[in-house]
Amino acid sequence: MLLRSLPRLARPYAARELSVWALLAVPTGVLSGGVTGVLVQTVFGTGAPTWVVAVAVALMTGAGSIANMGSLFWAQWGLGRGKVEALAQLQTGLAAVLLAAALAPVGIGGLAAFVIAILAAQILWTGIVTIRASIWRLNYDRSSRFVFAADNQAIVSTLQAATAALTGWLVQAHIDWFRWLLAAASVLVVLSLLRARTLRLRREWRLLAIERRQKENERFRIGRYLSIVREDALFRRYMGCMMLQGSGNLMFTAPLILAMTREIGMSTFSQILVTTVLPTLVVPFSSRYWARILAGVHVISFRRLNSRWFTGAIALTIVGALTGLEPVLWLSALLYGVATGGGMLGWNLGHNDFAPEARAADYLGLNISLTGLRGLLAPLVGVWLYGLLEAVSPGLGPWSLFLPLTLTLAGSISFARFDRDIRKAGNQPADERGVGGSST
Known about the structure:
Layout: H1 11-23, H2 25-31, H3 33-44, H4 50-61, H5 63-66, H6 71-77, H7 83-102, H8 108-139, H9 142-173, H10 178-196, H11 204-217, H12 222-231, H13 233-251, H14 253-264, H15 268-296, H16 299-323, H17 326-349, H18 360-392, H19 402-425
Helix pairs in contact: 1-9, 1-10, 2-9, 3-4, 3-9, 3-14, 3-15, 4-14, 4-18, 6-18, 7-8, 7-10, 9-15, 12-18, 13-18, 13-19, 14-18, 15-17, 16-17, 16-19
């Protein structure tokens, strides 16, 4: 049913691939920042200094983005490699570190082991996402890619939300039961690996030939990626807007978890409900809406609309955090999920509206790596400000959420101005069929 809107030739590829990502939905559901951040606060924080727990929460909420800094490495590592075999190698590593996370003991040593294991899992997931981008580009044209991404997101998000809810229930029922879920997630990764080996890619031989020539003629150099920033003015501005908005989005979850635990006193299940379950449940319903918009406009115009939803959701989150009203936090989580449905599509596919075909992996790598930079810094700044305000006066910590709101609002305004300037100039960046990025 989901695949009927795809061209007939693309459906066999899509049907096999959907099963691969569906099996990986449980592992990625456990790895989501809201879940691991709450686990650190609830399970592994016992006996550890408060500031250590706060830093660990920040690292967990930003882990997925921090790991993105390795995308440039994965893009280079994947050059000339068969994409199915590369995917299988990464899945093997992911299964191993999930099992290691399940065995981490309670206490400060276990806290360190758990944080390292989750960061390693997210680094490997970044490699999988990088390889996945090549698979999607091979098997689907631009229009089909948006449709397939929305279908995939609908299935994966539903399973991720169910996994997050189950994790919250297990931890609330018995503090160690989440370990069985992590072990099961490791097994599902192995099953996904076996399914991935059956994937067939269209015209992969041509892509591999291009990549092997590229790898022979040009070793990895950071300058190759910096040249994109230097030469493509439109993509440079796009990355600047993303840095503002993305920093706000990545900053607010860590201090929110601290506020829900310390000021509001919410249960573990309720915290995971707000940070992960409700936003993730909404994604399948909103992704189709966003996919139709993104298929018809350039990603700059798309981000102009999408960023407003992020700003409104974080503003409502502040109201809920300051008043302690859980229903307000539930509503803000739902709005954030609507925004995320579009944000994920734009993040996975938006670089194609700037990149020439030969440099698509470079553009994606740069985009993902900059996400990693803000994923490292933004949550740490958020918990630092939370702690600073608490030191000034206990109970002031939730007011730290105004900083991520300010950043997200600034990003929204920047996207609106960017779109207006592009329309006024009558200039559009090169799309995936072009031969080079635009510069102005």
